[in-house]
Amino acid sequence: MMSLPAIIGISLGASAFAAFTGKNRHKPLGRRMLYFFGGFIGTIILLIAVNFGLYVMSR
């Protein structure tokens, strides 16, 4: 199982990479920030769901 700081760190890294590199580099800052926050929230929800699933399976 992952700790909460690990989940937050992975989420920040993944959303920053997706929002500020590659094809999003030429988009306006507001749109990139929207991608960043949306990706951050989505990744946190996904990782917490995976973490909960691992917890349930280990019981």
UniProtKB/TrEMBL annotation:
This is Transmembrane protein. It comes from the Bacteria. Keywords: Membrane, Transmembrane, Transmembrane helix. The chain crosses the membrane at residues 34-57. It comes from Neorhizobium huautlense.
